[in-house]
Amino acid sequence: MNRKVLWVGGLVVVPLVVFLALSFGHDPRLIESPLVGDPAPAFDLHSLDGEAVSLPALAGRPVVLNFWATWCQPCIVEHPVLVESARRYEGRVHFVGVIYQDDGELIRRFVEQRGSWGPSLVDPGSEVAIRYGVYGAPETFFIDRQGVVRRKVTGPMGPSMLDAYLAELL
Amino acid sequence: MTRSAILHALATLLVAAAVAAQEPDGGFRVEVDQADLARLGAPEGRQLAGDELAERTQAVAALMRCPSCQGLSVADSHTVASAAMRAKIERLLALGYSDEQVLAYFEASFGEFIRLAPRPVGFNLVVWIAPVAALAIGFGLVVWRVRSSARTRRASADLERYRERVRAEVER
After folding, report:
1. Cβ A125–B28 below 8 Å, yes or no?
2. Which of A30, B125, B146, B172 is 20–30 Å from B67 (CA)?
3. Same domain, yes or no, for B75 and B102?
4. How many cross-chain Cβ pairs, A to B, lie less than 8 Å apart?
5. Given B35, B88, B111, which is nearest A41 (Cβ)?
6. Which CA distances in Å does B118 have to A15, A80, A124, B58, B114?
7. pLDDT in tens, B116-145
8. pLDDT in tens, A128-153
9. Residue span of the structural domain in which B158 resides
């Protein structure tokens, strides 16, 4: 009888342990964006300075599209990386920010104090964030010269990661 | 041009006209532009309004995961992201898109994770089948255990009667 119990218990427990071991291995929120490999959703927004910025107008150069906010600590960590990268890739890559659920005035003050890496676009009603399937900030989309999404990064990027992903697009 | 293509074009024009006529909702400027129309296709439901629209919006929002919360639906969440999504859901339902079309629209951007209940296909079936299977196995184990303990009790009773007989024989 003990052997039977062992078998039945094993049949129940082993698949459960395997399933849980596989599932706990990754964060379900770090999902690959379904947009990767597809044309990036178009947008036509205005920066805090009133400058009109649309995705079609950026075609011809890779675009780093970063959703960020001042309330987001990882965005603050990432900010100097983007400032430095935007300087190094000037004229070769468009760096564009989309304000994610934040106040324009706070963004303006933050950028004045810490430097800018590109236009910060106002996204009324989070329309663009919804179209890009943004779960939180920061999230960055790498869009190639043809306007196709090549990568999505969730969380703050370091300089080496940014360089590696841009090398794929340049 | 085929008949279905003409019908699709007509439906798209009607939706575009309805979009142009709509006012902003709940403080959100909700747009359904040409890119959305191309992604959504022709509406497969009927245009909703009033209480029915509010109820359906709530029902569809309850099927979707709030992107910036832990385990909350878009219907239950008070975050800005969820409010924006509810406004978009409402707009799409008002235009006549079906529940499934609305869910598919968000899934195309956010991935399947946006659905609180994964679709019962492929590996997802595990989620649907496993609880039922676990319940069936558990029930089977309980039945088996009860039966085997009943057998053990019957065997013990037989043994006790045998002992009584032996005791009686010896004492005689």
Report:
1. yes
2. B125
3. yes
4. 69
5. B35
6. 20, 39, 30, 19, 9
7. 988 888 877 887 788 888 899 899 989 998
8. 999 999 999 999 999 999 999 999 99
9. 123-171
List of E strands, A69-128: 94-99, 120-122
A4 domain residue, yes or no: no
Average of per-residue pLDDT values in chain B: 83
- pLDDT band with cut points at 50, 70 and 90 for residue B26: very low
Nearest chain B alpha carbon to A35: B109
B25 and B98 co-located in one domain: yes
Regarding whether B157 and B86 lie in a shared domain, the answer is no
Q: What pTM does this model have?
A: 0.74
The pair of structure tokens assigned to B118 is 């994964």
Whole-Å CA distances, A21 to A6, B6, B116, B130, B133 = 21, 52, 22, 16, 20
B118 touches chain A (CB under 8 A): no
Is the domain of B63 the same as that of B143?
Answer: no
Q: For residue range B84-101, what is the model confidence (pLDDT) as tens digits? A: 999 999 999 999 999 999
Cα separation of B55 and B46, whole Å? 14
Q: Does B128 touch chain A (CB under 8 A)?
A: no
Domain count, chain B: 2
Q: Does A27 map to a domain?
A: no
The domain boundary residue, chosen from B117, B140, B161: B117
This model of the complex carries an ipTM of: 0.81
* Region label for B50, one of left (φ > 0), alpha (ψ between -120 and 50) or beta (otherwise): left
How far does B158 lie from chain A, in Å, by closest CA?
Answer: 21
